[in-house]
Amino acid sequence: MREHEIGSDGLGRREVMRMLTASGMAAAGSGWLAGPALAQAPKRGGTIRAAGYSSSTADTVDPAKQTLSTDYVRCNMFYNTLTALDGNLAPQPELAASIESDRATVWTIKLRKGVTFHDGKALTAADVVYSLSRHNDPKVGSIAKPLAAQMVEIKATAPDEVQITLSSPNADFPVVLGTFHFHIIKEGTTDFTTAIGTGPYKCKEFTPGVRTIGVRNANYWKPGKPYLDEIEFFGIPDETARVNALLAGDIHIAGGITPRSTRLIKAQPGLAVFETPAGVYTDLITRLDAPVSGNLDFALAMKYLQDREQMRDAIWQGFAVIGNDHPITPSNRFYNKDIPQRAFDPDRAKFHFQKSGIGATAIPIVVSPAAAGSAEMAVMLQEAGGKIGLNLEVRRVPADGYWANHWLKSAVGYGNINPRPSVDILMSLFFKSDAPWNESAWKDPKFDQLLLAARGEIDFARRKQMYGDMQLMIRDQSGIGIPLFNSYLDGHVTGLKGLAPIPVGGMMGFNFAENVWLDA
Amino acid sequence: MNAAMLRLIALRLALGALTLFIVAALVFTATELLPGDVAEALLGQSATPAAVAGLRAALHLDQPSWWRFCLWLGGLLGGDPGVSLVNRLPVVVLIGNRLPNSLKLASITASVTVPLALLLGITTAMWRGSRYDRMVGMAIIGIVSVPEFLIASLAVLVFAVKLRWLPALAFRAGPQDFWAMMRLLAIPVGTLALVGIGQMSRMTRAALVTVLESSYVEMARLKGAGPLRIVLIHALPNALGPIVNAIALSTSFLLGGVIIVETIFNYPGLAKLMVDAVSTRDLPLVQACAMLFCAAYLALVLVADVVAILSNPRLRQR
User: What is the CATH number of the domain that holds B225?
Assistant: First the structure.
C-alpha cells in the first residue's frame, strides 16, 4: 500500500511504506503460513539434535562474521533481525514494528515494544544503532561491509526509533536489513564467546568446531514460540557421515544432503526429505564478445537446445525447478509469470544456429565440477547439437582454480550462482553492463536504466513491472541460459514438524529452530 | 647406572627442546608460505582490499613475520601460547577442550590394541610357521591393506545403520556413564585398533623370532625350560626395545593423526582442530598443535628408549 502524506515539515509528498500492511507483500502471501504443516497444532517440549554441513574453529556467534550456513542457523537461534524474509523473499517485520521511508533514502524504523534480551535488558534504539554501525568499522572485519556501506548515517531519534540515511535510494533496504549479518545485538558487545540476543533460544553452550546448545527462551516475544525445550546443533562436514547419523537415529535433521542420498532416506520408515526450491543455478554462459561464438543467434540456439525436463530428472533426480533463462525463481514475488516458458525446440535452435553462420567449426564448451552438473548438461547439449549440425566439444577442467582461470574467460562455459536476498543485488552483480561478474558480457543501457529506476521505486506494482521487463530482456538478449534452479535438500525424522521452505537456503532458510516442533 | 641414565635423559630433553624450536620455526614459515592469510580467509568473498587491510591491522598481521615469531616464542616461554586469530579465544582454552577427547580416544584404543597385539605377536612367534601363524599373518596383512576410512564406513553401515546396535557418531553432549561412553566409542576404537594391531603384532613377532632363533634360547630349551618360560623370561626382555618403539609410534599417531576417524565419527579431537587452524591460517593455534604433537612424540620415544635400556640386561649393566 502506498500512502501520500503531507509532512508537517513541508517536505511535500512523502512515500510511506508500512510493512505490515503493504499490499504487494501481503498479496504475495507467505507460503509457509498456508502450508499443511500448520494444519496441525504445534506441540510444546522436547529436545532435538540437528546437524549442519560445516564445523570448524571459525564457527561464530558474532553476526558480522557469519560465513557459512551453520553460522546462520546458530545465530538465528540466538538473535533476531529487524525484518525477516518469508517464503516469497518478501521482508516481514521482526524487531521492527514498522519501517517507513522518505523517497527510499531516509528510513525510519519503529522498534517493537516489550522485547528483551536474554539477560533481561530491554531492546532500545541504541542497540540497533550499535548493531548496524559496527559493520562499517574496518576493525570488526564484517562480511557485510559492502552492504553496510550505503548507510551513511545511523542515529537514534527516540528510545524506540532509529533513522537511517542511505547514500542513494534503495527500495530494497528492508530486505537488506533482513540479511543475517544485521542481527541485533546488545549495545557495546565485543565478546562473542557466548550469545546474548533477543532470539528464541538462550545460549547454554557454544564451543566453536564442537557444538552449540540453545535452551528455550521463555520470554520470547513471539507468543508460544519456540516449541522445543532445547536444541543441540553441530556440524558433520562429511555428507556420508551426516546421512548415516540420520539413518542410525542419532540426529533429527541433517542439513545439505545430495540428491543421491535422498533414496536412502526415503527408503527408511520414519525419515523424510525436505526440499527447498531456491535460487541456486548452474548457468550456460555464451560470451557475446567472443570471436566466433559471440553472437546472439548462437546464444539463442544454445538456449533452445536445453532439454530442461530431462536435465532435471537425470541430473538432479527431480529436485529442481525449471528455469526460463533468467535468474528469478517462480517463487519470487517479482517473478514475471507472463513470459512464455522456453522449451526444448531443436527446430528453432537449428534456425538460429544457421543464422549464426558458424557451420561445422568446433565450439569448445568448458565444464567443471566447480559448476555443479555442468558436465552432464554439456554432454546433453552436445548430443542435441549433433542432430542440428552444431559441433560442440566438451572440455573438462578441474574445480581447483576454475573461478579464477576459466569462469568469465571461456567463450562458452558454465557458472554457478548462489541466491541473493534481493533482485536488485542479483541483477547488479551479474547483469548490469559494467558489473565485474557480467558473465556473458551483455551490455544494454536500457537495462541499466531500469535497474537504477527500480532500485528507487517504492511502488510494488511498478517495480514488479520493471523487474518483469528486465527478466524478458535477460531471457531474449543476454548470453545466459538458466535451465534449472536446483533445490536445497535436508533429511529429517518425520516426527519433526513445522518445516516449510524459505528459499533463502536449506533448513527453512536457516531458521528452522524457532519454527519446528516434535510430534513424538 | 643411574647417573648414566639421568645424563641420557637430560641430553634427550635438551635435544627435544632444540627439535621443538626447529619444528616451530619450520611450521611458522610453512604456514606463512601458504597463499592467503587469516584476514583473507575470514572475509572470504567480501575480501575487498580496504577490509583486508583493516582486519590485518586489527590482528597485528601488518608487523614483519620474524617479529611476530619472536613475540609468539616469548609468549610461549612465558607460558602463554597466545589467542586464536579466528575466534579470539585463548589457544589454551581451545586445546583444553579437545585434548581430553583425544587422550580418551588414544588411551582406550591403546589399552585395547597393545595387549591384543602382544598376544598375537607372541603366539605367532611361538608357533611360527604353523597354520595359526599363517592365518593370523594373512588376516593382519589384509586388514592393514584396507584404508581405515573404508573400515570405518563399513562398520558404521553395518553396526549403526543396519543393525542399530551402536551410534554412528562418537560424541554426545553432557556427562556419559562408563557404558554409554564405551558404546559411543566402540566403532572408532575398533577401527583404530584394527589398524594399530597389525603393525604392532608384526613388529613383536619379528623381534621375538630373531631372539628365539638365537643360541642362548636354544641353550635354555636344552636345559628343559618350558616354551612359556623361554618366551616370557628369556626372549621377551631382549626383544622389548623394538616392540616398545613400535608401540610408542602407534600411540603418538593416535594423539594427532586420526583425522579420518575424527571426521567420520564427528569426534572433536586435536587432529580436526589443527586441520581447521591450517585452513583458516590461524597461526597461534597451528603452532600450539604442532608443538603439542611434536612434544608428545618426543616424550613417547624417550620413554620407549628408557624402557628398552632398562629391560635389556646388557645395556642396563653398563
Answer: 1.10.3720.10
When CB atoms are compared, the residue of B97, B168, B285 closest to A244 is B168
Parallel/antiparallel/unpaired status of strands A392-396 and A363-367: parallel
Same domain, B142 and B269: yes
> Which residues are within 8 A (CB) of A244 and not within 5 positions of it... i.e. 6 or more apart?
B156, B157, B160, B161, B168
Buried b (16+ CB within 10 A) or exposed e, A210-244: bbbbbbbbeebbeeebbbbebbbbbbbbbeebbbb
Name the domain count of chain B: 2
Alpha-carbon distance of A518 to A512, in angstroms, equals 12
Q: In the structure grid, which three cell numbers stand for residue B52, read together? A: 583486508
Tell me: do B50 and B190 sit in the same domain.
no
Cβ pair B263:A241 closer than 8 A: yes
Maximal C-alpha separation, chain B: 85
Q: pLDDT (tens digit, 9 = 90+) per residue, B156-185?
A: 999 998 888 988 888 777 777 888 888 889
For residue B273, the chain A residues in CB contact (below 8 A) are: 57, 209
Instruction: From chain A, pick out residues whose CB is under 8 angstroms from the CB of B43.
Output: 141, 143
Total beta-carbon pairs less than 8 A apart between chain A and chain B: 113
Is the same domain home to B228 and B279?
yes
Q: Give the N- to C-terminal CA distance of chain B in Å, as an integer.
A: 7
Residue A500, C-beta contacts closer than 8 angstroms, at least 6 positions apart: A31, A32, A35, A37, A38, A87, A508, A515
A57, A237, A240 member nearest B87 (Cβ): A57
Structural domains of chain A, with CATH: 278-486 (3.10.105.10)
Looking at the structure, do residues B65 and B9 belong to the same domain, yes or no? no
Chain B environment of A61 (Cβ under 8 Å): none
Contact B169 A236 (CB under 8 A): yes
In tens, the pLDDT along A421-478 reads 889 989 988 999 988 789 999 999 999 999 999 998 989 999 999 999 999 999 999 9
Closest listed residue to residue A490, CA positions, set A172, A188, A266: A266
Same structural domain, B52 and B140: no
Closest chain A CA to residue B272: A56
Q: Are the C-beta atoms of A322 and A335 separated by less than 8 Å?
A: no
Residues B68 and B143 in one domain: no
Structure ipTM: 0.78
| C-alpha distance from A228 to closest chain B C-alpha (Å) | 17
| Length reported for chain B | 318
Query: How many residues are given for chain A?
Result: 520
Same-domain pairing of B230 and B128: yes
B85 lies in a domain? no
Residue B251 contacts residue B300 (beta carbons within 8 Å): yes
**Does A364 contact chain B (CB < 8 Å)?**
no
**Global pTM value:** 0.80
Q: Is A500:A508 a contact under the CB 8 Å cutoff?
A: yes
**Contact at 8 Å (CB) between B270 and B277?**
no
- How far apart are the C-alpha atoms of B45 and A181, rounded to whole Å? 14
Q: What is the pLDDT of residues A162-216, one digit of tens each?
A: 999 999 999 999 999 999 999 999 999 999 999 999 999 999 999 888 899 999 9
Contact B43 A141 (CB under 8 A): yes
Cross-chain Cβ contact A244/B156 below 8 Å: yes
Residue B156 DSSP one-character state: I
Q: Please report the beta strands in A94-150, taking only residues with DSSP state E, as ranges in sequence order.
A: 96-102, 106-111
Question: Are B87 and A192 in contact (CB < 8 Å)?
Answer: yes
Q: Decide if B270 contacts B289 (C-beta within 8 A).
A: yes
Q: What distance in Å separates residue A419's CA from the closest CA in chain B?
A: 14
Domain, as residue range, for B289: 3-27+90-316
Q: Which of B55, B84, B97 sits opposite A141 (nearest CB)?
A: B55
- Is residue B288 within 8 angstroms of chain A, CB to CB? no
